[in-house]
Amino acid sequence: MSTLRVGDPLDKNTDIGAVNSAEQLARIRALADAGEAEGAERWAPACELPSSGYWFPPTLFTGVTQAHRIAREEIFGPVLSVLTFRTPEEAVAKANNTPYGLSAGIWTEKGSRILWMANKLRAGVVWSNTFNKFDPASPFGGYKESGYGREGGRHGLEAYLDV
């Protein structure tokens, strides 16, 4: 995490850009503070944040449980909450135990496990062995409180067609 570059999101060398508003920055701070107050261990590398704009340092939480707000709410900032699991079934149950379902990622060497887990996860996008890579021809949208409908791809266009 200490090698992540914070800065101009239009610069191809930047890893983490600015937060979109003062309100969102306040929400990220409040959730991060709640995670720490609820007993999760917080780690953020020392990094220089730009002097203008809305910035939050990349932050990692360990010791997180399902009871923590940072495990149940969408933060939309450079914050990672780490939960542990013993079995793939437990991982799926924990991932689905939230009112949100925008995206999920599966990291495994077993192709059959990827397909099984992707089918069980209630998320709009499920990546395997990568994260945040989009195919513009594929539909995108969340489940539950993370969105309504789909955009992009054929599914996203169907709402605008009368056929």
From TrEMBL:
According to the entry, every stretch annotated as the Aldehyde dehydrogenase domain falls at 1-162
Q: Keywords, A to Z?
A: Oxidoreductase
Q: Which GO terms describe its molecular function?
A: oxidoreductase activity, acting on the aldehyde or oxo group of donors, NAD or NADP as acceptor
Q: Which organism is it from?
A: Streptomyces violaceusniger
The record lists the lineage as: Bacteria, Bacillati, Actinomycetota, Actinomycetes, Kitasatosporales
Pfam families hit by this protein:
Aldedh
Name the UniProt record assigns to this protein: Aldehyde dehydrogenase domain-containing protein
